[in-house]
Amino acid sequence: MFSICRQNHPATGIEHAVSCCFFNSEEKCLVTAGANILKIFRLIPEVDIKERPIDGSAPKMKLECLANYTLWGSIMCLQTVKVHGTGGDLLLVSFKDAKLAVLQYDPNTHNLATLSLHYFEEDDMKGGWTSHNHIPWIRVDPENRCFVMLLYGRKLAVLPLRRETNAEDSDLLEMKPLDTKMPQPVSSKAPVMASYVIALKDLDEKIDNVIDLQFLHGYYEPTLLLLYEPVRTFPGRTAVRMDTCAMLGVSLNLHARVHPSIWAVTGLPFDCVSAVPIQRPLGGCLILAVNSVIYLNQSIPPYGVSLNSAANHSTNFPLKIQEGVCLTLESVCVSTLGPQKLALSLRSGQLYLLTLLADSVRSIRSFHFDKAAASVLTTCMCICEDSFMFLGSRLGNSLLLKFSEKERHTLTQVERPTATIDLTTEESSSNAKKRRMESLSDCMASDVQDIRDKDELEVYGSDKRTSTELTTYMFEVCDSLLNIGPIGDVSMGEPAFQEAAAAGGVELVTTSGYGKNGALCVLRRSVRPQLVTTFHLPGCIDMWTVIGELHGQNEANKNDVQDSEGSHSYMLLSQTDSTMVLQTGEEINEVDNSGFSTQSPTIFAGNLGNNKYIVQITSVAIRLIKGSQQVQHIHVDGGAIEAGVADPYVCVLTGAGRILVLALREAARGTARLAALRHSPPATPPAARCCAYRDLSGLFSSSPINIDVSNIKGENVVKKGMKPPNRNVKNEGAKDNPDVIHDINDEDDLLYGGDQTPASMVSLMQTERGQREGVTVHSRRDWWRRHFIDHKPTYWLFVVRSNGNMEIYSLPDMRLSFLVRGVINGAKVLMDSLESVPEIIGQTSNEDLISGLDDHDSMQGALKEIMVVGLGNKGSRPLLFLRTENELMIYQVFQYAKGNLKMRFRRLPLGLPRIPVSNENVEDASSDNSNIKKNVKKLRYFGNIAGYNGVFVCGSPGLWILLTPRGELRCHPHATAQEDSFVSIFAPFNNVNCLQGFLYFNIESELRICVLPTHLTYDAPWPVRKVPLRTTPHFVTYHLESKTYCVVTSQSAPTKTYYKFNGEDKELSDETAKGERFPYPMQDRFSIMLFSPVSWEIIPNTKIELEEWEHVTCLKNVSLAYEGTRSGLKGYIALGTNYNYSEDITSRGRILIYDIIEVVPEPGQPLTKNRFKEIYAKEQKGPVTAITQVLGFLVSAVGQKIYIWQLRDGDLVGVAFIDTQVYVHRVLSVKSMLLAADVYRSVALMRFQEHHRTLSLAARDMRTAQVFDVEFMVDNSNLGFVVSEIEGNFVLFMYQPEARESFGGQRLIRKADYHLGQKVNCMFRIACCSLPEQRDDAALNVSDKRHCTMFATLDGGLGYILPLSEKVYRRLLMLQNVMNNYCCHLAGLNPKAHRTYKSARKLVGGPARGILDGDLVSQFLYLPQNERSEIAKKIGTKVEEILSDLIEIDKLTAHF
Question: Around Cβ 1055, how many Cβ atoms within 10 Å?
Answer without folding.
Answer: 15
